[in-house]
Amino acid sequence: MSSASEQATAIRASRGDVEAFRLLVEEHSGLVYRVALRILGVEDAQDASQEVWIRVWRNIKNFRGDSAFSTWLYRITVNTCLSVRRKEARRGEREFSGEKLPFLPEPRGGDADPEASALSAEKREEIQDALGHVRAEHRAALVLRHMEGLSYAEIARVLEVPDGTAKGWVSRGRAAMLIALAEENRREAGGSAE
Amino acid sequence: MMPVGEQQWEMLERIGAYAAGELGEEETREVEQLLFERPEYRRVAESYARMLVMLTTFGSEPVEVPEAVVGYAIRRAHVSAFMRSAEAFAGALGRSYIEAFVYYLGLRRESYGGGT
């Protein structure tokens, strides 16, 4: 769907056209589920995605087409995921004393390893788990930047914060993610050495 | 003076921005000089680069949306649209009955059809 026809479909849906809404759901359910999955993990992604679409239908009458429909949808998705996270007990962020810098081990076979282009199930689990140790807002910013490929201006619009804050959240999320991944690798290496 | 943890954290974020290619020319040169002088920072930069590749790969992997998500959203919209129309219909019907009743009781002089 081109962005012009997407806007037109969203405007039709905003007037109560269920068929137009169905087209939007079919076109964008991947985006919503993918972002929910990265921010919340597999246990909560389905419920959160359903909640997102309920909110979209309830609020689409307010959609005027001033911003791209996808930006508006990203905003509802991220807000829904963050509100799910706020209800839960916060998972511990990895401590950083500054004494030990976080390192990731080199992949077997060096950087030219063909395995690097595809992730193993184990690696995926490791990434998802490490994401869980990054503060929710920073995680959302990190996901939007490095997984969804959004610009800082777009991230700022989605998160409704100034550009500088969006940049700071991505930067902190990136550092926290590296610390969490390095910690996972260290624990795994320690476990396999035992 | 900044505590060691904070200093290192700042450095960590700076190296992260470098690895993501987000620094300006001058800052890039400064960080590259640091990486040249400090092998441990070089390792951090390499780790960041590896992590960013992993994140991009992870983000670009297709995900399978559970059928229930799409089906549920569309069903809910249909039900809600039906309820809205039913509500509007019932409202209009109720108003017509009241108007007819008012006319029947002779409380209003105009005819039911809206004429005089």
What do these coordinates show?
The complex is a heterodimer of chains A (194) and B (116). Chain A is mostly helical and 194 residues long. Chain A has 2 domains: 3-87, Rna Polymerase Sigma Factor, Chain: A, CATH 1.10.1740.10; 114-193, Arc Repressor Mutant, subunit A, CATH 1.10.10.10. In chain A, 69% of the residues lie in helices and 0% in strands. In chain A, helix 3 crosses helix 4, helix 5 (121-131) crosses helix 8 and helix 7 packs across helix 8. The radius of gyration of chain A is 19 Å and the shape is elongated. The model of chain A has no long low-confidence stretch (mean pLDDT 86). Chain B is mostly helical and 116 residues long. Chain B folds into 2 domains: 4-60, no CATH class; 64-116. The N and C termini of chain B lie far apart (89 Å). The model of chain B has no long low-confidence stretch (mean pLDDT 84). At the A-B interface, helix 2, helix 3, helix 5, helix 6 and helix 8 of A face helix 1, helix 3 and helix 4 of B.
Topology:
The complex is a heterodimer of chains A (194) and B (116).
Chain A: H1 3-14, H2 18-40, H3 42-59, H4 69-87, H5 121-131, H6 136-147, H7 152-159, H8 163-193
Helix pairs in contact in A: 1-2, 2-3, 2-4, 3-4, 4-7, 5-8, 6-8, 7-8
Chain B: H1 4-19, H2 25-37, H3 39-60, H4 67-104
Helix pairs in contact in B: 1-3, 2-3
CATH level 1 class label of the largest domain in chain A: Mainly Alpha
Overall 3D geometry of chain A? elongated
Per CATH, which architecture of the largest domain in chain A?
Answer: Orthogonal Bundle
The rough form of chain B would be described as: elongated
**Tally of discrete structural domains of chain B:** 2
Ranges of chain A with pLDDT <50 over ≥5 residues? none
Number of E-state strands of chain B: 0
Structural class of chain B: mainly alpha
Structural class category of chain A: mainly alpha
CATH topology of the largest domain in chain A: Rna Polymerase Sigma Factor, Chain: A
Radius of gyration of chain A: 19 Å
Separation, N- and C-terminal Cα atoms of chain B: 89 Å
The CATH homologous superfamily name of the largest domain in chain A equals RNA polymerase sigma factor, region 2, helix turn helix motif
User: Mean pLDDT of chain A, as a whole number?
Assistant: 86
Beta-strand residue percentage of chain A: under 5%
Largest sheet of chain B: none
Total helical elements of chain B: 4
